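Student: Send me a single protein entry containing the residue sequence and its fold in token form, directly below this note:

Tutor:
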Amino acid sequence: MPTVAELTGLYGNFMTGPRPGPEVCSLCFNFTDGFPRCYACTHGESWLDVVAPISYSVAREQLHHALAGYKRLTGEVARRLQVELAAVLWRYLAEHERCITRAAGSDGFELVTTVPSSDRDRDEAHPLRRIVGELCGPTRERHERLLKRSAAPAPEREFRTDKFELVRPLSVRSILLIDDTWTTGATAQSAAATLRRGGASHVAAVVIGRHLNREWHHNDRRLRSIPRPFDWRRCAVHDGSAAR
């Protein structure tokens, strides 16, 4: 049986860890043109205490293909990708969940849940719940499905406070949200809004990949300036807290 370190060894060769800086969004770590937050985070509502992207997910590159393939493919290939991505999440949380807890002002996350799909039919069998609830050691015992798509009409990438609804009333105050990809953040923020309105006082999000297009503006230069290979000992949240 491969270890977590063995399963994540290949990923460390092509993952790129976000770092805080003067041209990086202070919430989602998107690249900006010198502004403290990117356009989406400036003009959208924020219900999350912390957003912690493990890596940038560059369009049409390896992590992007893995994050698309684990939920679109079937059979052995899909199962292998799910195990590998669970190992990535496992290794990151084992090293850095305490960083996220401190940044969120929490004493610890009592429950872990996933951001639902905006598509009701696809959400019923979404493999992200298997990753978080079965395969990933640090989240397995705390995982519970807390959210589902509501009947309210809403485009896939539009923020709505009524986009999701609680499966049951909340009995905890501190929740860790897991998502596979952050593009505009509208879906994760909609999920966080539902948890907040349901009584949660601390909600933080860990996303495996923060989506970027290499060709957009100066993204290629900025990505190439990040040291390689991926350093599992560092995280964007810890680096940002130290900088502040």
About this structure: The chain has a mean pLDDT of 94. Strands lie at 50-58, 111-114, 147-149, 164-166, 174-182, 202-212. Residues 4-227 form one domain. The first helix runs from residue 4 to 9.
